Amino acid sequence: MPLFDVYPLYNVTPVSGVDMHVYDEKEVEYLDLYGGHAVISIGHSHPSYVKAITNQVSKLGFYSNAIQNPLQVELADKIESLSGCKGYELFLCNSGAEANENALKLASFKTGKSRVVAFKNGFHGRTSAAVAATDNPNIIAPINAQQKVTILPLNDVEGVKKELEKGDVCAVILEFIQGVGGLDQGTAEFFEQVDALCKANNTYLIADEVQSGYGRSGKFFAFQYYNVTPEVISIAKGMGNGFPIGGILIHPNIEAKYGMLGTTFGGNHLACAAGVAVLNTIEEENLIANVNEISEYFISVAKTIPQIKNIKGRGLMIGLEFDFEVGELRKKLIYEYHIFTGGASNKRLIRILPPLTIKKSHVDQFFKALNEVLKTVEK
Asked: For residue 376, what pLDDT is reported?
């Protein structure tokens, strides 16, 4: 049976990975500066992570949410401790799209409203309401388009005010650093005024931290650079280091009700074991401090390269923007220099989303290769 052909694939077949590197079937080593869409947070096959999953699956891999699962409580407590989001409550699911779906559903339940405000170049997932709130008509089917969503430009405070005062908006969903859209950010004034407008209009502020969370921005969450208090925070990608897990953090003012949200696989024993191992490693190896140190070094080197016209993002969520489309450049990096990087809807942008364990030597390796590739592009 053929696979349904919806992904354009590079001719690379990784079969193993260790920390910052993956290896193909011919044992060729690739430097991973993309982390599989920012999923690999503590490095490929981290020994503590492998041990935690192995030990758990040897005892109990799964049972339903109808029973007590102390691993869920351990994970929730660890997130609260490391994130500083005191008093929030955790609902676990399986992916970023599912996290945002539940966030939007919760906002609609609690406010009694149904319209959503989202932003240009935003990406929130591929499921029903999440994809409707995504600024990409090519991936929104007619069944998704039934959702009521208004998409505004970033930094349009007056536009947000106008829409919220109509009284039918349940949620404003935004990325504090846009991912797929190309690493754009709003201003501090914009984010803080949107938060205030939400509070004044019985509207939930949903912080989509699916890609920017778990230390990638240089803080545990990217919204923590600003004076805002989201009602709901969605998390996923770096949460399980490759094991499927997602969740939402829910403000303590929001009361739970039996049956309001639910999931079969969310918060299963294996996923929680993976999640706890990731947080333990982030803490024990001081990886958020490493994010900030390496980010500063990376940006300082990037500034010396004249072909880079703009540096976007924060932490280890970095975009390098050129004055030409970078598709061929990225192919050369993969096939000739064995370095994975990421693309974006902005075709002139390279996204850098490495494991948080990256070292300066890896940055040097990348920029040496990039400079060589840029010579061939110029020719």
From this structure: 86
Burial of 230 (0-12, 13-18, 19+ CB in 10 A): buried
Pairing of strands 232-235, 204-208: parallel
Percent helix, strand and coil across the chain, each to the nearest 5: 40, 15, 45
DSSP readout, 318-334?
A: EEEE-SS--HHHHHHHH
- CA 370/CA 125 separation, integer angstroms: 31
Residue 169 burial class via C-beta count within 10 angstroms: exposed 0-12, middle 13-18, buried 19 and up: buried
Distance CA 184, CA 278 (A): 27
Global confidence as pTM: 0.96
Beta-carbon contacts of 28 under 8 Å, excluding residues fewer than 6 positions away, are 338
Which tokens is 72 given?
A: 């869920």
DSSP 261-322: S--SSTT-HHHHHHHHHHHHHHHHTTHHHHHHHHHHHHHHHHTT-TT--EEEEETTEEEEE-
Whole-number Å distance between alpha carbons of 210 and 307: 31
Strands (E) across 105-157 are located at: 115-119, 149-152
Separation between Cα atoms, residue 161 and residue 182, nearest integer Å: 25
309 pLDDT above the threshold of 70 = yes
Contact 204, 232 (CB under 8 A): yes
Contact yes or no for 143/179 (Cβ under 8 A): no
| Mean pLDDT for the stretch of residues 208-233 | 98
What domains does the chain contain, in order, with CATH numbers?
Answer: 14-46+286-378 (3.90.1150.10), 48-284 (3.40.640.10)
379 has a pLDDT exceeding 60: no
Looking at residue 105, its pLDDT comes to: 97
In this predicted model, what pLDDT tens digit does every residue of 53-106 receive, in sequence order? 999 999 999 999 999 999 999 999 999 999 999 999 999 999 999 999 999 999
Residues in the chain: 379
Quickly tell me which residue has 């859209």 as its tokens: 181
d(CA 311, CA 297): 13
